[in-house]
Amino acid sequence: MPIISRISAQVKKQCYYNIYIDGKYELSLSELDLASSGIKTNQNIDEKKLEELKNTQTKSKSYNFAIRYLALRPRSSHEVNEYLVYRKGFTQEDSDYTIHRLTNEKYINDQDFAEMWVRNRMLLSPKSERVLRLELVKKGVDKQIIDEALLSLSDQDKLDSIIEVINKKLRQQKFRDKQKLTESLSRQGYNYSLIKKAFEELALFQD
Predict the structure, then answer these.
(1) pTM
(2) Which residue of 5, 34, 88, 134 sits 20 to 30 Å from the alpha carbon of 199, by its own alpha carbon?
(3) Could you count the other beta carbons within 10 Å of the beta carbon of residue 121?
């Protein structure tokens, strides 16, 4: 039966340990996973236990990739799954494990993500409610969560959003034409009643 011949700390990666079987490197485990495994040097190890350790190693790698991905900006659970499965090649099982763990640890929360997305968009790059909905759909956020996030938008928020967009468009001569400006705003997802209200607020195209 194979023997764990050596367990040594990694030099470049703290809190990780290399596991050697019969004198050859086999896998690496985090300090926590190593402690949980109960293995030690000069211990016999069967194929079932070795496979368990390799699965633990893979899940740990999946988790660490996801943590680094989330460090760039908040993500939806769908985005994390797409990243792990289609970009990093992990199995769906490994991705499910990672997302479940990160959700429990509160690194992933689709409700918080959707609310943050709507809030930041309105603050930094105003969009219509329809566009915000489409963006969140593309990120795999559940319809009910999207509905709840968009409920946080007041009528004033929506009016402020379109007014900012209009003021930017008016820098271009072509949008000083009522029809062209209205058509452009409609294509961006603003409804006619909100467009009309914004024109009134800005005293534009008044007869």
Answers:
(1) 0.87
(2) 134
(3) 16
